[in-house]
Write a structure and sequence with these properties.
The chain is an all-alpha fold. It has one domain (3-186). 79% of the residues lie in helices and 0% in strands. The chain contains seven helices and no strands. The radius of gyration is 17 Å and the shape is globular.
């Protein structure tokens, strides 16, 4: 395997893992990516060096704190979910695009949108369902527990992605295949008339 191909695969795996984390919390993985880039542990694709700058680091830090706090305020958490769904897709796309190097812009952005944005959107969709089930089942009393689990998911997924990107990407892909297969099997089968 050539060095360029290895870097591209590593970038894709990092993008998949951090995009999944964007589905839990939009700004936690962006903050982790900014810190890793700022400290020199990650090299970003051309045009994305701003992610590792002081202004980006400060902005992502403040946004992360506000996002975390917002999910612990009743009803604000549901408002954030409606905003976070499209924002997670955008963040997942951005994260993946910033990590995939040595490919054409068409390939980079196609991978970013399909893999990064798609995975972030799927994970975000499951968190919205969990929050909805919490609201219906407990009247929203369990929402802080759900918020804590989602935050833990974002932090753990982000950190594990930096430590073991290929493993995390494989686990995420297998999980999505299993969930997709189960959903496919549960679909209503049309009855002949």
């Amino acid at each position: 395997m050539t060095h360029s191909l290895a870097e591209t695969l590593l970038g894709i795996c990092l993008g998949i893992g951090l995009s999944a984390a964007c589905g839990f919390r939009v700004f936690v993985p962006l903050l982790v990516l900014s810190l890793a880039s700022f400290s020199g542990h990650l090299t970003l694709a051309p045009g994305f060096s701003w992610i590792g700058s002081y202004p980006a680091l400060i902005t992502f830090s403040v946004a992360t704190c506000l996002e975390i706090a917002g999910y612990y305020i009743p009803w604000v958490d549901h408002l954030l979910d409606s905003i976070a769904s499209p924002a997670a897709v955008v963040a997942g796309t951005l994260v993946t695009a910033s990590l995939v190097t040595d490919v054409s812009p068409l390939v980079r952005w196609s991978l970013a949108l399909i893999a990064g944005g798609g995975i972030a959107g799927m994970v975000q969709g499951t968190t919205v369902l969990a929050r909805g089930a919490s609201l219906v089942g407990t009247g929203g009393l369990a929402n802080p527990v759900v918020a804590t689990l989602e935050l833990g998911g974002a932090v753990m997924t982000s950190l594990l992605t930096l430590l073991a990107p290929f493993f995390v990407a494989a686990v995420i892909i297998i999980f999505l295949i299993v969930v997709g297969w189960k959903a496919w099997r549960r679909r209503p089968v049309p009855q002949p008339t």
